[in-house]
Amino acid sequence: VSAPLDELRAKLTPGAVLEPADGLERYERSVLFDRRGQAAFAVRPKTVDDVRSVVRWAVRHRVRLVAQGANSGLVDAGLPDASGEMGVLSLELCRERLDIDPLDRTVTASAGWDLDGVNDRLAAHGLRVPVDVGSNPLIGGMISTNTGGTNVVRYGDVRRLTRGVQVVVADEDATVLDLLAAVRKNNAGLDLKQLFIGAAGTLGIVTAATMDVAVLPRQRAVAWVGVSGDRGAFALLQVLERRAGELLTSFEMMSGRMLQLRARHKPDLRQPFPLDAIPPLALLIELSSTIDPASGLDVAQLLAEIIGAHAADGTVIDAVFGPPEQMWAMRHGIDETAAEGYQFWVDVCFARSAIADFRARFDELLDARYPGWEFIDLGHYGDGGLHAAGMYPFRLGREPPPEEVEALRGEVYELVSELGGSFSAEHGIGPSNAAYYHAYTPTDVQRLSGRLKAVFDPHGILGVTRFGTAAPG
Ligand SMILES: Cc1cc2nc3c(=O)[nH]c(=O)nc-3n(C[C@H](O)[C@H](O)[C@H](O)COP(=O)(O)OP(=O)(O)OC[C@H]3O[C@@H](n4cnc5c(N)ncnc54)[C@H](O)[C@@H]3O)c2cc1C
Hey, whose CA ends up nearest to atom 13 of ligand 1? Predict the structure, then answer.
């Protein structure tokens, strides 16, 4: 790639193009798991025009590019492959725009703005992007993965919050599709922006987005609630939806096993339950409101009342209220589970009514056919999302062979399919789960997805994920 790289360098600001000798490691490694690719170069455009220059150049020379944001994605879709021939198009310096419209309650931000940075600026206006995740993704990455998080039950996912996007597609001219929209309703033709949300950077490079933002709450109440099992958890969820309605901001689940793991590895955190009385299932529930408590609506009182009523009927075993930051600290950052054993995680979603069945059958599968393996999980119960893992403890002194892990993973995904669930609830599709996309996505959907790919990226230069079966070109 060395000759054309000089041509690219000449079009951009000095320092925009990095080569292996400059150290590309941070563009080649995912932040959470130690997975790697190998890049020929990394390029860091600052403006939409720069992005166009890069894409035009890449199309001309048929150089494959992978877009990258904060590299916090969990399916390796933002990493270059192992060929050493791809370029990483990092959007981290693309921050030319950040426009806040307090009247319309929107923010329009360039792809390189990070979520925390946007929220810091919005806070001055009493606003925030209502997406809560344990990472700090960039706006372009959020659009491209359709980020979920712990507030989906109230605000929806990124798709629901996105009014418009601006995208550079990979035709000869690197056309800019300006689909940024100020309006709340727009039925003037096909809504192309939807195609780019959750597309893993395969159809175009997102350069900016307009998102709906929410008013910062004036009051929040957060509680950890121990229950005996799924039946009680979902009964409580229904009551909360009936009695607290739109105040219900989060309804998260952490299994007792997961809480025990956390307690062992994060003893410094405030533990919600006595260590000798950790419940089988714990819920982290948040109610919040923009209404001043002086008006008579007190969300803490309401939450306490609802939980109290269920303590009386035996659904709730234990409950603890506390400052939101302390309560949430136990939920965010679950990476210490890696200290206990080999594990593989699935990011799945079900109709709420199917979750209990999935959990029980996953656990039974391990007991019956995979000796030594343990089931651990936590989930976004409000929206039906579950992060579940099979873990093989280090203390057993054996590394499970890859065939065993793959066989187990295959059986778990088969179960997801049987129960009508999604095998990728919020992390999207990338090399780490693409095989299942091809196995479980109807062939007609794959075929037509391939046709769409050929429209926006006719030479097949964008992304590492392959949606569709049609050959590009
Ligand atoms: C501790 C931790 C907790 C997390 N919790 C959650 C959670 O609760 N919910 C959730 O949904 N996710 C979660 N994630 C996953 C991750 O943070 C999200 O997927 C995030 O939205 C990815 O954004 P990013 O900027 O890091 O993108 P990257 O990882 O850099 O890229 C992700 C994908 O988007 C593409 N892409 C990036 N930028 C662009 C662009 N400008 N144009 C086109 N394509 C682009 C990449 O090619 C890749 O396919 C978590 C991750 C971590 C590490």
Answer: 133
* pTM for this predicted structure: 0.96
Query: What atom in ligand 1 is closest to the CA of residue 430?
Result: 49
* Distance from chain centroid for Cα 289: 25
Find the distance separating the first CA and the last CA of the chain, reported in whole Å: 22
Taking 90 as the threshold, does the pLDDT of residue 291 lie above it? yes
- Identify the burial level of 98 via C-beta atoms within 10 angstroms of its C-beta, where 0-12 means exposed, 13-18 middle and 19 or more buried: middle
Position 252 pLDDT exceeds 80: yes
Beta carbon of 133 within 6 Å of any ligand 1 atom: yes
Q: In sequence order, what are the residues at sequence separation of 6 or more whose Cβ sits closer than 8 angstroms to the Cβ of residue 123? A: 216
The reported pLDDT for the residue numbered 472 is 40
Q: H helices then E strands: how many in the chain? A: 16, 18
For residue 456, give both structure tokens: 């926006």
Cα 143 to Cα 166: distance, rounded to the nearest angstrom: 11
Q: Report the Cα 278 to chain-centroid distance in Å.
A: 28
| Structure confidence at residue 334 as a pLDDT band (50, 70, 90) | low
Q: Are strands 65-68 and 98-101 parallel, antiparallel or unpaired?
A: unpaired
Residues in the chain, total: 473
The partner residues of 282 in beta bridges, in order of sequence, read 226, 254
What single string gives the DSSP state of each residue in 32-90?
A: SS--B--EEEEE---SHHHHHHHHHHHHHHT--EEEESSS--SSSTTS--TTS-EEEEE
Site to probe by mutation for ligand 1, drawn from 135, 151, 195, 253 as the one with most ligand atoms within 8 Å of Cβ, is 135
